[in-house]
Amino acid sequence: MKYFLPRKALYATGFAFITASVMTDACAQESYKGKIGKTLATSEEWWPAPVSTPKDAPNIVWILLDDVGFGASSAFGGLISTPTFDSLAANGLKYTNFHTCAICAPTRAALLTGRNSASVHVSGFSHTMLSAGFPGWDGKIPAQDATVAELLKEYGYNTFAVGKYGVTPDEDATDAGPFDRWPSGKGFEHFYGFLGSQTDQYKPDLVEDNAHIQPTGNNLNEDITTKAIFYIDRQKKAAPGKPFFLYYAPGATHAPFQVPNDWLDLYKGKFDDGWDAYREQVIANQKKIGIIPQQATLPENNPGIVPWNTLSPEQKKTYARFMEVYASYLTYIDAQIGKLVGHLKDIGQLDNTMIFLMIGDNGASKEGSYNGVLDRGPTARQLTDEDAVRDNLQRIDLIGTPQGSQTNYPLGWAQACNTPFRYWKQDAHSEGGTRNPLIIFYPKGIKDKGGTRNQYSHVIDILPTTLEYIGIKAPQYLRGIKQDSIQGHSLVYSFNNATAASKHTEQYYYIFGSRAIYKDGWKAATYHHPDFIDERVKDSASLAAIKRDFSKDVWQLYNMNEDFNEQNDLSVKYPDKLKALQALFDADATKYGLYPMIDWDDVLKRRIHKNGVAVAPAGGGH
Length: 622
Description:
Layout: H1 7-21, H2 25-28, E1 59-64, H3 83-90, E2 93-95, E3 98-99, H4 104-113, H5 148-154, E4 158-164, E5 190-194, E6 207-208, E7 211-212, H6 220-238, E8 244-249, H7 274-288, H8 313-346, E9 353-358, H9 378-381, H10 385-394, H11 411-417, H12 431-434, E10 438-441, E11 451-453, E12 457-458, H13 462-470, E13 477-478, E14 481-482, H14 492-495, E15 506-511, E16 514-519, E17 522-526, H15 540-546, E18 555-559, H16 575-592, H17 600-606
Parallel strand pairs: 1-8, 1-9, 2-11, 3-12, 4-5, 4-8
Antiparallel strand pairs: 2-10, 5-6, 6-7, 9-10, 13-14, 15-16, 16-17, 17-18
Helix pairs in contact: 6-8, 7-11, 8-10
Family: Belongs to the sulfatase family.
Domain Sulfatase N-terminal: 58-472
Protein name: Arylsulfatase
Protein backbone atom coordinates (compact mmCIF):
# COMPACT_ATOMS: atom_id res chain seq x y z
CA MET A 1 0.00 0.00 0.00
CA LYS A 2 1.23 3.51 -0.83
CA TYR A 3 0.88 6.37 1.59
CA PHE A 4 0.69 10.03 0.59
CA LEU A 5 1.28 13.09 2.72
CA PRO A 6 -1.33 15.82 2.49
CA ARG A 7 -0.26 18.75 0.30
CA LYS A 8 0.12 21.01 3.34
CA ALA A 9 2.43 18.49 4.97
CA LEU A 10 4.42 18.16 1.77
CA TYR A 11 4.93 21.90 1.68
CA ALA A 12 6.02 21.92 5.29
CA THR A 13 8.38 19.03 4.75
CA GLY A 14 9.81 20.62 1.63
CA PHE A 15 10.32 23.91 3.41
CA ALA A 16 12.07 22.15 6.25
CA PHE A 17 14.32 20.33 3.80
CA ILE A 18 15.22 23.58 2.02
CA THR A 19 15.87 25.31 5.33
CA ALA A 20 18.13 22.51 6.48
CA SER A 21 19.98 22.45 3.17
CA VAL A 22 21.32 25.99 3.64
CA MET A 23 22.64 25.46 7.15
CA THR A 24 26.05 26.84 8.04
CA ASP A 25 28.98 24.48 7.86
CA ALA A 26 29.55 24.92 11.55
CA CYS A 27 26.01 23.56 11.97
CA ALA A 28 26.79 20.78 9.53
CA GLN A 29 29.31 19.54 12.09
CA GLU A 30 26.94 20.13 15.02
CA SER A 31 25.46 17.14 16.79
CA TYR A 32 21.72 16.59 16.44
CA LYS A 33 19.86 18.43 19.19
CA GLY A 34 16.41 16.96 18.68
CA LYS A 35 15.02 13.79 20.18
CA ILE A 36 14.56 10.59 18.18
CA GLY A 37 12.00 8.23 19.59
CA LYS A 38 10.42 5.17 18.06
CA THR A 39 7.41 7.17 16.93
CA LEU A 40 6.78 10.75 15.95
CA ALA A 41 4.77 11.23 19.11
CA THR A 42 7.81 10.43 21.25
CA SER A 43 10.26 12.44 19.11
CA GLU A 44 11.24 16.12 18.97
CA GLU A 45 12.19 17.72 15.66
CA TRP A 46 15.25 19.97 15.28
CA TRP A 47 16.90 21.81 12.41
CA PRO A 48 20.02 23.94 12.52
CA ALA A 49 19.38 27.65 12.20
CA PRO A 50 19.33 28.66 8.53
CA VAL A 51 21.98 30.95 7.17
CA SER A 52 20.86 34.50 6.66
CA THR A 53 22.62 37.07 4.54
CA PRO A 54 24.01 39.86 6.74
CA LYS A 55 21.74 42.88 6.95
CA ASP A 56 22.24 45.42 4.14
CA ALA A 57 24.74 43.13 2.41
CA PRO A 58 25.74 44.76 -0.89
CA ASN A 59 25.94 43.18 -4.30
CA ILE A 60 29.55 42.33 -5.11
CA VAL A 61 31.18 42.66 -8.52
CA TRP A 62 34.75 41.55 -9.16
CA ILE A 63 36.18 42.72 -12.49
CA LEU A 64 39.49 41.19 -13.57
CA LEU A 65 41.06 42.33 -16.83
CA ASP A 66 43.77 40.43 -18.68
CA ASP A 67 47.30 41.53 -19.69
CA VAL A 68 46.83 45.29 -19.26
CA GLY A 69 49.87 46.78 -17.53
CA PHE A 70 50.19 49.49 -14.87
CA GLY A 71 50.65 52.40 -17.28
CA ALA A 72 47.99 51.69 -19.91
CA SER A 73 44.68 53.10 -18.64
CA SER A 74 43.98 56.79 -18.19
CA ALA A 75 42.84 56.03 -14.63
CA PHE A 76 46.49 55.40 -13.74
CA GLY A 77 48.15 57.95 -16.00
CA GLY A 78 48.15 55.99 -19.26
CA LEU A 79 47.35 57.43 -22.68
CA ILE A 80 44.48 55.03 -23.39
CA SER A 81 41.07 56.50 -22.61
CA THR A 82 39.12 54.53 -19.99
CA PRO A 83 36.29 56.83 -18.85
CA THR A 84 34.48 54.10 -16.91
CA PHE A 85 37.61 53.28 -14.93
CA ASP A 86 38.21 56.99 -14.38
CA SER A 87 34.70 57.43 -12.99
CA LEU A 88 34.96 54.44 -10.66
CA ALA A 89 38.31 55.73 -9.39
CA ALA A 90 36.97 59.26 -8.91
CA ASN A 91 34.19 57.86 -6.74
CA GLY A 92 36.20 55.16 -5.04
CA LEU A 93 39.79 54.39 -4.07
CA LYS A 94 42.90 53.79 -6.20
CA TYR A 95 45.38 51.26 -4.82
CA THR A 96 48.85 51.84 -6.27
CA ASN A 97 50.74 49.03 -4.54
CA PHE A 98 48.53 46.07 -5.47
CA HIS A 99 50.10 42.88 -6.83
CA THR A 100 49.20 39.82 -8.88
CA CYS A 101 51.06 36.57 -9.55
CA ALA A 102 52.64 37.64 -12.90
CA ILE A 103 50.59 35.27 -15.05
CA CYS A 104 46.92 34.44 -15.50
CA ALA A 105 46.08 31.06 -13.95
CA PRO A 106 48.00 31.51 -10.68
CA THR A 107 46.47 34.98 -10.29
CA ARG A 108 42.95 33.65 -10.87
CA ALA A 109 43.37 30.70 -8.54
CA ALA A 110 44.75 32.97 -5.82
CA LEU A 111 42.02 35.58 -6.34
CA LEU A 112 39.14 33.11 -6.22
CA THR A 113 40.37 31.35 -3.09
CA GLY A 114 42.19 34.03 -1.09
CA ARG A 115 45.17 31.69 -0.87
CA ASN A 116 48.56 31.58 -2.53
CA SER A 117 48.58 29.89 -5.91
CA ALA A 118 50.91 27.07 -4.86
CA SER A 119 48.71 26.36 -1.85
CA VAL A 120 45.78 25.74 -4.21
CA HIS A 121 47.87 23.66 -6.65
CA VAL A 122 48.21 26.29 -9.41
CA SER A 123 51.87 27.28 -9.36
CA GLY A 124 51.72 26.95 -13.14
CA PHE A 125 48.54 26.23 -15.07
CA SER A 126 45.63 23.84 -15.26
CA HIS A 127 46.61 23.03 -18.86
CA THR A 128 47.90 19.48 -19.18
CA MET A 129 51.20 20.49 -20.76
CA LEU A 130 51.74 23.33 -18.28
CA SER A 131 50.96 21.46 -15.07
CA ALA A 132 52.94 18.76 -13.28
CA GLY A 133 52.39 15.83 -10.96
CA PHE A 134 53.18 17.55 -7.69
CA PRO A 135 50.75 18.98 -5.10
CA GLY A 136 51.58 22.61 -5.86
CA TRP A 137 51.53 22.06 -9.60
CA ASP A 138 48.72 19.70 -10.63
CA GLY A 139 46.37 22.56 -11.56
CA LYS A 140 43.43 21.21 -9.54
CA ILE A 141 42.08 23.54 -6.86
CA PRO A 142 41.25 21.29 -3.86
CA ALA A 143 37.84 21.15 -2.19
CA GLN A 144 39.37 22.38 1.07
CA ASP A 145 40.14 25.70 -0.63
CA ALA A 146 36.67 27.05 -1.28
CA THR A 147 36.20 29.83 -3.80
CA VAL A 148 34.54 33.14 -3.09
CA ALA A 149 31.49 31.91 -4.99
CA GLU A 150 31.16 28.84 -2.78
CA LEU A 151 31.43 30.96 0.34
CA LEU A 152 29.00 33.67 -0.71
CA LYS A 153 26.51 31.15 -2.03
CA GLU A 154 26.42 29.58 1.44
CA TYR A 155 25.45 32.98 2.85
CA GLY A 156 22.54 33.62 0.55
CA TYR A 157 24.15 35.24 -2.50
CA ASN A 158 23.36 34.29 -6.06
CA THR A 159 26.61 33.77 -7.94
CA PHE A 160 27.42 34.36 -11.60
CA ALA A 161 30.61 34.37 -13.66
CA VAL A 162 31.22 35.55 -17.21
CA GLY A 163 34.34 35.60 -19.39
CA LYS A 164 37.59 33.78 -18.77
CA TYR A 165 37.77 31.09 -16.11
CA GLY A 166 41.21 29.62 -16.78
CA VAL A 167 41.51 27.10 -13.93
CA THR A 168 39.63 24.06 -15.24
CA PRO A 169 42.01 21.16 -16.00
CA ASP A 170 42.15 20.34 -19.72
CA GLU A 171 41.17 16.73 -19.14
CA ASP A 172 37.93 17.87 -17.49
CA ALA A 173 37.03 20.54 -20.05
CA THR A 174 34.73 18.47 -22.25
CA ASP A 175 30.96 18.14 -22.21
CA ALA A 176 31.42 14.82 -20.42
CA GLY A 177 33.02 16.55 -17.44
CA PRO A 178 33.57 15.80 -14.64
CA PHE A 179 32.23 19.23 -13.72
CA ASP A 180 33.50 19.64 -10.18
CA ARG A 181 36.29 21.94 -11.39
CA TRP A 182 34.14 23.85 -13.86
CA PRO A 183 32.72 27.12 -12.53
CA SER A 184 29.49 25.31 -11.67
CA GLY A 185 31.46 22.94 -9.43
CA LYS A 186 33.16 25.85 -7.68
CA GLY A 187 30.10 27.73 -6.52
CA PHE A 188 28.95 29.64 -9.60
CA GLU A 189 25.27 29.07 -10.29
CA HIS A 190 25.65 30.34 -13.86
CA PHE A 191 28.65 30.75 -16.16
CA TYR A 192 29.06 32.11 -19.68
CA GLY A 193 32.52 32.30 -21.21
CA PHE A 194 35.52 30.09 -21.87
CA LEU A 195 37.42 27.66 -19.66
CA GLY A 196 40.93 28.07 -21.09
CA SER A 197 43.49 30.87 -21.02
CA GLN A 198 42.86 32.40 -24.44
CA THR A 199 40.21 32.29 -27.11
CA ASP A 200 39.28 33.98 -30.37
CA GLN A 201 36.98 36.93 -29.69
CA TYR A 202 34.67 36.05 -32.60
CA LYS A 203 34.98 32.26 -32.61
CA PRO A 204 35.39 31.53 -28.92
CA ASP A 205 35.54 28.11 -27.34
CA LEU A 206 32.26 29.06 -25.68
CA VAL A 207 30.61 27.48 -22.65
CA GLU A 208 27.34 28.19 -20.89
CA ASP A 209 26.86 26.50 -17.54
CA ASN A 210 27.93 22.87 -18.12
CA ALA A 211 28.04 22.63 -21.91
CA HIS A 212 29.84 24.03 -24.92
CA ILE A 213 27.62 26.13 -27.17
CA GLN A 214 27.88 27.79 -30.56
CA PRO A 215 29.23 31.38 -30.64
CA THR A 216 26.83 34.16 -31.66
CA GLY A 217 29.21 35.83 -34.11
CA ASN A 218 29.38 38.95 -31.95
CA ASN A 219 32.52 40.06 -30.17
CA LEU A 220 32.75 37.91 -27.04
CA ASN A 221 33.19 40.91 -24.75
CA GLU A 222 29.85 42.28 -25.87
CA ASP A 223 28.16 38.94 -25.30
CA ILE A 224 29.52 38.41 -21.78
CA THR A 225 28.29 41.88 -20.83
CA THR A 226 24.83 41.16 -22.20
CA LYS A 227 24.77 37.84 -20.35
CA ALA A 228 25.90 39.40 -17.07
CA ILE A 229 23.07 41.94 -17.30
CA PHE A 230 20.62 39.14 -18.10
CA TYR A 231 21.68 37.15 -15.02
CA ILE A 232 21.32 40.20 -12.79
CA ASP A 233 17.91 41.19 -14.15
CA ARG A 234 16.54 37.67 -13.91
CA GLN A 235 17.68 37.38 -10.31
CA LYS A 236 16.36 40.80 -9.26
CA LYS A 237 12.98 40.03 -10.82
CA ALA A 238 12.70 36.80 -8.82
CA ALA A 239 14.20 38.07 -5.55
CA PRO A 240 14.62 41.87 -5.49
CA GLY A 241 16.18 41.97 -2.06
CA LYS A 242 18.68 39.16 -2.57
CA PRO A 243 22.31 40.20 -3.22
CA PHE A 244 24.39 38.79 -6.06
CA PHE A 245 28.05 38.16 -6.70
CA LEU A 246 29.30 38.68 -10.25
CA TYR A 247 32.77 37.69 -11.42
CA TYR A 248 33.32 39.59 -14.67
CA ALA A 249 36.57 38.43 -16.28
CA PRO A 250 36.78 39.34 -19.97
CA GLY A 251 39.35 37.93 -22.36
CA ALA A 252 40.39 41.53 -22.97
CA THR A 253 43.07 42.66 -23.29
CA HIS A 254 44.75 39.28 -23.82
CA ALA A 255 45.66 38.32 -27.37
CA PRO A 256 44.12 38.18 -29.86
CA PHE A 257 43.44 41.92 -30.06
CA GLN A 258 40.11 41.90 -31.90
CA VAL A 259 37.49 44.67 -31.83
CA PRO A 260 34.48 45.62 -33.98
CA ASN A 261 35.29 47.51 -37.18
CA ASP A 262 33.90 50.82 -35.96
CA TRP A 263 36.44 50.81 -33.11
CA LEU A 264 39.56 50.00 -35.14
CA ASP A 265 40.57 53.56 -36.03
CA LEU A 266 39.76 55.22 -32.72
CA TYR A 267 43.48 55.94 -32.13
CA LYS A 268 44.60 56.45 -35.73
CA GLY A 269 47.92 58.30 -35.67
CA LYS A 270 47.94 58.69 -31.88
CA PHE A 271 51.05 56.59 -31.32
CA ASP A 272 53.23 57.70 -34.21
CA ASP A 273 55.68 59.28 -31.76
CA GLY A 274 56.50 55.81 -30.46
CA TRP A 275 57.03 54.02 -27.19
CA ASP A 276 59.76 56.29 -25.80
CA ALA A 277 57.48 59.32 -26.02
CA TYR A 278 54.65 57.27 -24.51
CA ARG A 279 56.75 56.40 -21.46
CA GLU A 280 57.78 60.01 -20.90
CA GLN A 281 54.21 61.27 -21.09
CA VAL A 282 52.86 58.54 -18.83
CA ILE A 283 55.39 58.94 -16.03
CA ALA A 284 54.67 62.68 -16.05
CA ASN A 285 50.94 61.96 -15.78
CA GLN A 286 51.48 59.49 -12.96
CA LYS A 287 53.40 62.07 -10.96
CA LYS A 288 50.74 64.68 -11.66
CA ILE A 289 47.91 62.53 -10.29
CA GLY A 290 50.01 61.41 -7.33
CA ILE A 291 50.23 57.67 -7.83
CA ILE A 292 54.04 57.47 -7.97
CA PRO A 293 56.76 59.43 -6.13
CA GLN A 294 57.58 62.86 -7.53
CA GLN A 295 61.28 61.99 -7.75
CA ALA A 296 60.62 58.86 -9.82
CA THR A 297 62.62 58.30 -13.00
CA LEU A 298 62.19 55.91 -15.89
CA PRO A 299 64.31 52.76 -15.74
CA GLU A 300 66.46 51.85 -18.70
CA ASN A 301 64.92 49.86 -21.52
CA ASN A 302 64.30 46.16 -21.09
CA PRO A 303 66.74 43.89 -22.96
CA GLY A 304 66.22 44.03 -26.71
CA ILE A 305 64.03 47.16 -26.76
CA VAL A 306 65.62 49.74 -29.04
CA PRO A 307 64.90 53.48 -29.19
CA TRP A 308 61.94 54.32 -31.43
CA ASN A 309 63.99 56.76 -33.50
CA THR A 310 66.30 53.93 -34.62
CA LEU A 311 63.48 51.98 -36.29
CA SER A 312 62.83 51.91 -40.02
CA PRO A 313 59.72 53.65 -41.44
CA GLU A 314 58.22 50.20 -42.10
CA GLN A 315 58.74 49.16 -38.49
CA LYS A 316 57.28 52.39 -37.14
CA LYS A 317 54.18 52.14 -39.31
CA THR A 318 53.47 48.53 -38.39
CA TYR A 319 54.34 48.83 -34.71
CA ALA A 320 52.21 51.97 -34.29
CA ARG A 321 49.24 50.17 -35.86
CA PHE A 322 49.52 47.33 -33.37
CA MET A 323 49.36 49.85 -30.52
CA GLU A 324 46.43 51.74 -32.08
CA VAL A 325 44.42 48.52 -32.12
CA TYR A 326 45.48 47.57 -28.60
CA ALA A 327 44.37 50.96 -27.30
CA SER A 328 41.02 50.55 -29.06
CA TYR A 329 40.70 47.12 -27.44
CA LEU A 330 41.16 48.55 -23.94
CA THR A 331 38.80 51.46 -24.57
CA TYR A 332 36.28 49.01 -26.01
CA ILE A 333 36.32 46.82 -22.89
CA ASP A 334 36.03 49.95 -20.75
CA ALA A 335 32.84 50.73 -22.70
CA GLN A 336 31.49 47.23 -22.08
CA ILE A 337 32.12 47.61 -18.35
CA GLY A 338 30.44 51.01 -18.66
CA LYS A 339 27.32 49.27 -19.96
CA LEU A 340 27.31 47.02 -16.93
CA VAL A 341 27.84 49.90 -14.49
CA GLY A 342 25.25 52.01 -16.30
CA HIS A 343 22.71 49.21 -16.09
CA LEU A 344 23.26 48.84 -12.36
CA LYS A 345 22.55 52.55 -12.04
CA ASP A 346 19.43 52.31 -14.21
CA ILE A 347 17.91 49.57 -12.04
CA GLY A 348 18.78 51.35 -8.79
CA GLN A 349 21.51 48.92 -7.71
CA LEU A 350 24.76 50.84 -8.26
CA ASP A 351 24.80 52.55 -4.85
CA ASN A 352 24.35 49.15 -3.26
CA THR A 353 27.08 47.43 -5.28
CA MET A 354 30.69 47.06 -4.21
CA ILE A 355 32.97 46.88 -7.25
CA PHE A 356 36.56 45.65 -7.23
CA LEU A 357 38.25 46.55 -10.53
CA MET A 358 41.62 44.85 -11.08
CA ILE A 359 43.19 46.33 -14.21
CA GLY A 360 45.20 43.29 -15.21
CA ASP A 361 46.00 39.82 -13.92
CA ASN A 362 49.69 40.47 -14.56
CA GLY A 363 51.82 43.01 -16.39
CA ALA A 364 51.51 43.83 -20.08
CA SER A 365 52.13 40.84 -22.33
CA LYS A 366 55.63 39.90 -23.49
CA GLU A 367 54.19 37.31 -25.87
CA GLY A 368 53.96 39.52 -28.97
CA SER A 369 57.66 39.14 -29.90
CA TYR A 370 59.82 42.13 -30.84
CA ASN A 371 57.88 42.66 -34.07
CA GLY A 372 54.27 41.99 -33.14
CA VAL A 373 52.23 38.93 -34.03
CA LEU A 374 49.26 38.31 -36.32
CA ASP A 375 49.30 34.52 -36.20
CA ARG A 376 51.55 31.79 -34.84
CA GLY A 377 51.49 29.14 -37.54
CA PRO A 378 54.63 27.14 -38.49
CA THR A 379 55.46 29.65 -41.24
CA ALA A 380 55.33 32.61 -38.87
CA ARG A 381 57.72 30.92 -36.44
CA GLN A 382 60.35 30.47 -39.15
CA LEU A 383 60.40 34.09 -40.35
CA THR A 384 63.46 36.25 -39.77
CA ASP A 385 62.86 39.57 -38.01
CA GLU A 386 63.10 41.39 -41.33
CA ASP A 387 60.65 39.01 -42.99
CA ALA A 388 58.27 39.26 -40.03
CA VAL A 389 58.14 43.05 -40.32
CA ARG A 390 57.54 42.81 -44.08
CA ASP A 391 54.84 40.16 -43.60
CA ASN A 392 53.02 42.22 -40.96
CA LEU A 393 53.22 45.34 -43.11
CA GLN A 394 51.69 43.52 -46.07
CA ARG A 395 48.82 42.40 -43.85
CA ILE A 396 48.52 45.53 -41.72
CA ASP A 397 44.79 45.86 -42.43
CA LEU A 398 44.18 42.53 -40.68
CA ILE A 399 45.47 43.78 -37.31
CA GLY A 400 42.53 43.83 -34.90
CA THR A 401 40.17 41.94 -37.21
CA PRO A 402 38.84 38.37 -36.92
CA GLN A 403 41.56 37.30 -39.38
CA GLY A 404 44.27 38.33 -36.90
CA SER A 405 43.94 35.12 -34.96
CA GLN A 406 46.78 35.79 -32.50
CA THR A 407 47.23 39.56 -32.74
CA ASN A 408 49.59 40.89 -30.07
CA TYR A 409 51.72 44.03 -30.02
CA PRO A 410 55.53 44.32 -30.12
CA LEU A 411 57.48 44.14 -26.88
CA GLY A 412 58.35 47.83 -26.98
CA TRP A 413 54.69 48.66 -26.42
CA ALA A 414 54.42 46.10 -23.61
CA GLN A 415 57.27 47.90 -21.90
CA ALA A 416 55.53 51.22 -22.43
CA CYS A 417 52.23 49.95 -21.00
CA ASN A 418 54.08 48.84 -17.86
CA THR A 419 55.44 52.36 -17.18
CA PRO A 420 57.11 53.09 -14.77
CA PHE A 421 58.30 49.53 -14.16
CA ARG A 422 60.73 47.15 -15.83
CA TYR A 423 59.93 43.85 -17.48
CA TRP A 424 56.49 42.40 -18.11
CA LYS A 425 54.06 39.49 -17.80
CA GLN A 426 55.60 36.18 -16.63
CA ASP A 427 58.39 38.04 -14.81
CA ALA A 428 57.59 37.30 -11.18
CA HIS A 429 60.82 38.93 -10.05
CA SER A 430 59.76 42.37 -11.25
CA GLU A 431 57.07 44.94 -10.45
CA GLY A 432 56.44 45.10 -14.20
CA GLY A 433 55.18 41.54 -13.99
CA THR A 434 53.30 41.76 -10.72
CA ARG A 435 52.05 45.29 -10.00
CA ASN A 436 48.59 46.18 -11.31
CA PRO A 437 46.09 48.96 -10.64
CA LEU A 438 43.23 48.25 -8.26
CA ILE A 439 40.09 50.37 -7.84
CA ILE A 440 37.54 49.75 -5.10
CA PHE A 441 34.17 51.46 -5.55
CA TYR A 442 31.36 51.47 -3.01
CA PRO A 443 29.42 54.71 -2.56
CA LYS A 444 27.89 53.69 0.77
CA GLY A 445 31.13 52.63 2.40
CA ILE A 446 33.94 54.76 1.00
CA LYS A 447 34.13 58.31 2.32
CA ASP A 448 37.41 59.40 0.73
CA LYS A 449 36.11 59.41 -2.83
CA GLY A 450 38.92 59.75 -5.33
CA GLY A 451 41.48 58.84 -2.69
CA THR A 452 44.76 57.03 -3.25
CA ARG A 453 46.05 54.17 -1.13
CA ASN A 454 49.67 53.00 -1.11
CA GLN A 455 49.41 50.04 1.28
CA TYR A 456 51.09 46.88 0.01
CA SER A 457 48.50 44.36 -1.11
CA HIS A 458 48.11 41.23 -3.18
CA VAL A 459 45.39 39.48 -5.13
CA ILE A 460 44.79 37.08 -2.22
CA ASP A 461 43.56 40.09 -0.22
CA ILE A 462 40.43 40.64 -2.31
CA LEU A 463 38.45 37.71 -0.89
CA PRO A 464 39.04 38.54 2.81
CA THR A 465 38.28 42.20 2.07
CA THR A 466 34.97 41.17 0.56
CA LEU A 467 34.07 38.87 3.44
CA GLU A 468 34.99 41.36 6.15
CA TYR A 469 33.04 44.20 4.62
CA ILE A 470 29.94 42.06 4.20
CA GLY A 471 30.33 40.72 7.73
CA ILE A 472 31.00 37.07 6.91
CA LYS A 473 33.60 34.84 8.51
CA ALA A 474 35.14 32.10 6.40
CA PRO A 475 33.74 28.83 7.82
CA GLN A 476 35.93 26.10 9.24
CA TYR A 477 33.91 23.56 7.31
CA LEU A 478 32.15 23.78 3.97
CA ARG A 479 29.78 20.96 3.03
CA GLY A 480 31.49 18.78 5.60
CA ILE A 481 35.03 19.47 4.34
CA LYS A 482 37.48 21.18 6.68
CA GLN A 483 38.80 24.33 5.02
CA ASP A 484 42.34 25.65 4.80
CA SER A 485 42.93 29.06 6.30
CA ILE A 486 42.54 32.17 4.17
CA GLN A 487 46.04 33.54 3.58
CA GLY A 488 45.21 37.05 2.40
CA HIS A 489 44.65 40.16 4.51
CA SER A 490 41.54 42.33 4.38
CA LEU A 491 42.00 45.87 3.08
CA VAL A 492 38.99 47.26 4.94
CA TYR A 493 41.36 48.85 7.49
CA SER A 494 42.62 51.16 4.74
CA PHE A 495 39.25 52.29 3.36
CA ASN A 496 39.00 55.33 5.60
CA ASN A 497 42.61 55.61 6.72
CA ALA A 498 45.06 56.56 3.98
CA THR A 499 48.08 56.36 6.30
CA ALA A 500 47.32 53.04 7.98
CA ALA A 501 50.29 50.67 8.08
CA SER A 502 50.15 47.78 5.61
CA LYS A 503 48.89 44.53 7.09
CA HIS A 504 50.16 42.42 4.19
CA THR A 505 53.89 42.46 4.97
CA GLU A 506 55.26 39.31 3.33
CA GLN A 507 54.72 37.74 -0.10
CA TYR A 508 56.53 35.29 -2.35
CA TYR A 509 56.38 35.26 -6.18
CA TYR A 510 57.30 32.56 -8.70
CA ILE A 511 56.69 32.00 -12.41
CA PHE A 512 58.84 29.78 -14.68
CA GLY A 513 61.95 30.18 -12.51
CA SER A 514 61.78 33.94 -11.99
CA ARG A 515 61.10 34.51 -8.33
CA ALA A 516 61.02 37.09 -5.56
CA ILE A 517 60.25 37.57 -1.90
CA TYR A 518 58.88 40.76 -0.33
CA LYS A 519 59.14 41.50 3.38
CA ASP A 520 58.47 44.78 5.20
CA GLY A 521 59.46 47.03 2.32
CA TRP A 522 62.45 44.99 1.15
CA LYS A 523 62.48 42.72 -1.88
CA ALA A 524 64.93 40.09 -3.08
CA ALA A 525 64.51 38.85 -6.64
CA THR A 526 66.14 36.85 -9.40
CA TYR A 527 65.43 36.61 -13.13
CA HIS A 528 66.05 32.95 -13.91
CA HIS A 529 66.24 33.48 -17.68
CA PRO A 530 67.46 37.00 -18.41
CA ASP A 531 67.26 36.51 -22.16
CA PHE A 532 63.88 36.67 -23.88
CA ILE A 533 62.75 33.25 -25.10
CA ASP A 534 60.00 32.95 -27.69
CA GLU A 535 58.45 30.22 -29.77
CA ARG A 536 61.35 30.19 -32.22
CA VAL A 537 62.91 27.71 -29.78
CA LYS A 538 62.08 24.52 -31.66
CA ASP A 539 64.36 21.70 -30.65
CA SER A 540 66.02 19.96 -27.75
CA ALA A 541 69.46 21.33 -28.61
CA SER A 542 68.16 24.87 -28.30
CA LEU A 543 66.51 24.01 -25.01
CA ALA A 544 69.73 22.57 -23.65
CA ALA A 545 71.52 25.77 -24.62
CA ILE A 546 69.23 27.90 -22.47
CA LYS A 547 69.14 25.52 -19.52
CA ARG A 548 70.28 27.20 -16.32
CA ASP A 549 70.98 25.91 -12.86
CA PHE A 550 68.73 27.49 -10.21
CA SER A 551 71.66 27.61 -7.81
CA LYS A 552 73.55 29.89 -10.21
CA ASP A 553 70.83 32.52 -10.42
CA VAL A 554 71.99 35.99 -9.42
CA TRP A 555 69.78 37.68 -6.83
CA GLN A 556 69.20 41.39 -6.46
CA LEU A 557 68.01 43.38 -3.46
CA TYR A 558 65.80 46.46 -3.39
CA ASN A 559 64.50 48.81 -0.73
CA MET A 560 61.01 49.32 -2.11
CA ASN A 561 60.22 52.14 0.30
CA GLU A 562 62.91 54.27 -1.34
CA ASP A 563 63.18 52.64 -4.77
CA PHE A 564 59.69 51.60 -5.81
CA ASN A 565 60.61 50.70 -9.42
CA GLU A 566 63.75 48.72 -8.67
CA GLN A 567 66.63 50.69 -10.09
CA ASN A 568 69.17 50.49 -7.25
CA ASP A 569 70.43 46.98 -6.51
CA LEU A 570 71.63 46.82 -2.88
CA SER A 571 72.71 43.18 -2.82
CA VAL A 572 76.42 44.00 -2.49
CA LYS A 573 75.81 46.66 0.13
CA TYR A 574 73.55 44.52 2.31
CA PRO A 575 74.54 40.86 1.80
CA ASP A 576 73.09 39.74 5.14
CA LYS A 577 69.71 41.23 4.30
CA LEU A 578 69.76 39.44 0.95
CA LYS A 579 70.70 36.15 2.58
CA ALA A 580 67.88 36.47 5.11
CA LEU A 581 65.33 37.13 2.37
CA GLN A 582 66.59 34.18 0.33
CA ALA A 583 66.09 31.98 3.38
CA LEU A 584 62.59 33.43 3.77
CA PHE A 585 61.78 32.57 0.15
CA ASP A 586 62.87 28.99 0.82
CA ALA A 587 60.70 28.85 3.93
CA ASP A 588 57.65 30.20 2.09
CA ALA A 589 58.20 27.91 -0.89
CA THR A 590 58.18 24.99 1.53
CA LYS A 591 55.24 26.28 3.57
CA TYR A 592 52.95 26.97 0.63
CA GLY A 593 53.87 23.92 -1.47
CA LEU A 594 55.74 25.62 -4.30
CA TYR A 595 58.55 23.07 -4.56
CA PRO A 596 59.82 21.63 -6.81
CA MET A 597 60.60 24.73 -8.83
CA ILE A 598 59.74 24.16 -12.49
CA ASP A 599 61.50 26.09 -15.21
CA TRP A 600 60.33 27.73 -18.44
CA ASP A 601 62.49 25.36 -20.48
CA ASP A 602 60.94 22.43 -18.58
CA VAL A 603 57.59 23.76 -19.78
CA LEU A 604 58.90 24.14 -23.32
CA LYS A 605 60.01 20.53 -23.32
CA ARG A 606 56.41 19.56 -22.67
CA ARG A 607 55.42 21.56 -25.75
CA ILE A 608 57.81 19.83 -28.14
CA HIS A 609 56.16 17.36 -30.50
CA LYS A 610 58.14 14.46 -31.89
CA ASN A 611 58.59 16.47 -35.11
CA GLY A 612 60.49 19.11 -33.16
CA VAL A 613 57.98 21.93 -33.64
CA ALA A 614 56.82 23.93 -30.61
CA VAL A 615 53.07 24.16 -30.29
CA ALA A 616 50.66 26.20 -28.19
CA PRO A 617 49.43 24.52 -25.01
CA ALA A 618 45.98 23.04 -24.79
CA GLY A 619 43.51 25.79 -23.96
CA GLY A 620 45.42 28.29 -26.05
CA GLY A 621 48.05 30.74 -24.87
CA HIS A 622 48.63 31.79 -21.29
